Amino acid sequence: MSFNNLDQLYRQVIMDHYKNPRNKGSLAGEHVTVDMNNPTCGDRIQLQLEVEDGKVVDAKFDGEGCSISMSSASMMTQAIKGKSVEEAVKISGIFSDMMQGKEPEIDIDDLGDIQALQGVAKFPARIKCATLPWKAMEQGVAEKQ
User: Fold this and answer.
1) What's the pLDDT at 18?
2) What are the residue ranges spanned by the domains of the chain?
3) How far apart are CA 81 and CA 58, in angstroms?
4) Which of 63, 106, 108, 136 could bridge to 36 as Cys pair (CB 3.0-4.6 Å)?
5) Coil, strand, or helix at residue 63?
6) What does the pLDDT look like over 37-59, one tens digit per residue?
7) Which H/E stretch holds residue 68?
8) CATH topology assigned to domain 3-144
9) C-alpha dihedral sign at 89, 128, 100, 115
10) Contacts for 31 with CB less than 8 Å, ≥ 6 apart
11) Which has the closest alpha carbon to 12: 69, 65, 67?
12) Cβ neighbours of residue 118 under 8 Å, at least 6 residues apart?
C-alpha cells in the first residue's frame, strides 16, 4: 500500500471515530471522573472510569474538541476496557512514545485503530490534542489506586 493510500486510510479511521465515537456517554454507579482541557485549542474531555480489582471494567467519555482529541478518546476507551490498570498505563506509555516520534516497543499493528494517530507526531501543536484523553486516563487510574 502506498504512503498516500495509507495516509488516506488513517484519515478515514480518525474521522470514523470522530463521527461515530465509541464509548461516548456517562457511566452509572460508582466510578472515577476526570475533567481535563487543553487551553491551547479548547479541547475538553470528561472521562469516567469504572475500575474494580485493578481492572478497567468500563470507560466512557464526553467532551468537545477537534477530530484528533475526540477520536483519540474513542480509540483509548476501546483499547483500555477489560485491561488491567497496569496494561492500560503501559498502552498509554506506548502511545506517548509514538506521539514523540519514538519507535514503539511493540508492533504498531498491535495498537489497532490507535496506529491511525501516528501521523499526529509530525504536527507538534496537535500532540496535546491526541494525548489529552490518555493523560485523563492516567490521572483517573492513579486516583483509583
Assistant:
1) 97
2) 3-144
3) 5
4) 136
5) strand
6) 998 889 999 999 999 999 999 99
7) helix 67-80
8) Sufe protein. Chain: A (3.90.1010)
9) positive
10) 48, 49, 50, 51, 58
11) 67
12) 10, 98, 108
Q: Which region among 27-36, 104-113, 114-123, 124-133 has the lowest average model confidence (pLDDT)?
A: 104-113
pLDDT in tens, 77-109: 999 999 999 999 999 999 999 999 887 777 667
Q: What is the mean pLDDT of residues 27-34?
A: 95
Cell 485491561 found at: 83
Cell of 69: 482529541
Could you tell me which of 113, 53, 118, 45 has the C-alpha nearest to residue 83? 53
Q: Give the position of cell 478497567.
A: 56
Cell of 142: 492513579
Residue at grid coordinates 476501546: 78
* Cβ neighbours for 117, distance < 8 A, ≥ 6 positions apart: 10, 14, 68, 71, 72, 75, 95, 98, 99, 130
